[in-house]
Every structure is written in structure tokens, then in C-alpha cells.
Amino acid sequence: MPRxxxxxxxxxxxxxxxxxxxxxxxxxxxxxxxxxRPGELRDPALREANITVTEVRVSPDxxxxxxxxxxxxxxxxxxxxAGLKRSAVFLKGRMARMVELxxxxxxxxxxxTAFDGAARIAALLAxxxxxxxxxxxxxxxxxxx
Length: 145
What we know:
It contains five helices and three strands. The protein has helices at 2-9, 19-35, 77-98, 114-126, 128-134; strands at 51-58, 64-71, 106-111. The chain has a three-stranded mixed beta sheet. A hairpin with a 5-residue loop joins strand 1 and strand 2. Helix 2 (19-35) crosses helix 3. It is flat and about 65 Å long. The N and C termini lie far apart (69 Å).
């Protein structure tokens, strides 16, 4: 009984990600990466698209999954995301044959913005005033005073 009470006290987003969620997410990521290879799908937007699946986050009940994807060089992002949305049910059916789960989660696709954040940080670190601050400072010697 105390376990149920603990669940009510914490918001769903505050729960730590379980080892099972991480394992299932990684298995789904590998399956999606295999399915999203160029030439594997009939959808015109996805037929020759190079899509990177960076992460799959699974809900605690394992019924929903968000796949974070990034088209190669960010080209045709809107068109590819629309194609993925159209193909979500088909991809779920194909993944059901590839992974051993009692129930394959519903798929939702999202553009991974981590690459944009990393590029912004790299640009900030390359600025001259930041580079100057990152250099080691020489030790000040007073000559024994």
C-alpha cells in the first residue's frame, strides 16, 4: 500500500527513468534505425531520406514512445516529419516483428534539437573573449613578499 501512495506524491515527469525504460528505448531505437534506412519505406518523403534516430524515450507504462530523429543535415525536416507521422502505425507493426515485447508502444516522432544546442555551445566557446577566459592564467609571483 505505501507504494501506491508514493506514486501519487510524485509527478510523472519527476520519476526517474527505470532501467527497463532505457533498455526498451534502446531496443526500439535500433529497430527504428534499421527500418528507416534509405530505400526501406515506400513513402515518397522517406524513400531516399537519411534519418538518424538519436534517442527513443519510453513512458513508464511502456505504452508510448517518443523517437527523436534528425534528417541528414536537417534537409527537408518538415516533409520528413510529416512522412514519419503518416508511417507511424506501419512502423509500429514492423517493429512488433523485430522486438520481443508484449505490446509495442505507440510511436510519436520529434525533431532532435540537441545538435542545434551543441552547435550553439561550440560557437560560444569559439568566441575570442571566451577563448581568452578559458586559457590558464599565469601565476603572480611577488618575489617572496
